[in-house]
């Protein structure tokens, strides 16, 4: 498949990231751009724009994995922002559309561990403690009854993310047949 004719679609995730960046700037919260879903959206837009199918696959998968934590966050009171709909729903649909046309499949679910770990390190050194971007600092207060300390919480999140990557990749592989 010639992804070249679909590369223009990369403008949409990049536009969504730009809209989010403007929103974060206006709220004096640029650190929010480092959240897993937001930075993944940027990388997805770049992967599509440059026609790198392996990365389109991974970042589409990562965007899909991010839907469940986003929905959970909404249930515990994290603010709903219209930009989240673009990032969590529209961008993955664009990625899936391109992958459906490409007829390629990868096994990249295990890269999710490294990706999360890298984002947590970057978040730990570049974002405010109180914002807990990418769960880099502490257990969310609503979850303290279930996790007695941060290392257990971190391990559960990391394992859950890995399992989610694996399951969603298997589902996407079947959907794209």
Mean pLDDT comes to 90
Number of domains: 1
Fraction of residues in helices? 55-70%
Shape from CA axes?
globular
Rg over CA atoms, rounded to whole Å, is 16 Å
Q: Whole-Å distance between the termini? A: 15 Å
Number of strands: 0
How do the SSEs run, as a string of H and E? HHHHHHH
| Largest pleated sheet | none
Descriptive notes:
- The protein starts with 10 loop residues before the first helix and ends with a helix.
- The protein has helices spanning 11-26, 36-50, 53-65, 67-75, 82-102, 111-126, 150-175.
- It has 177 residues and is mainly alpha-helical.
- It has one domain.
- 33% of the residues are buried.
- α1 (11-26) packs antiparallel against α5 (82-102) and α2 (36-50) packs antiparallel against α3 (53-65).
- It is built from seven helices and no strands.
Notable features of this structure?
single chain, 177 residues, mainly alpha, 7 helices, globular
Q: What layout of secondary structure does this protein have?
A:
Elements: H1 11-26, H2 36-50, H3 53-65, H4 67-75, H5 82-102, H6 111-126, H7 150-175
Short account of what is shown:
The protein has 177 residues and is mainly alpha-helical. It has one domain (3-175).
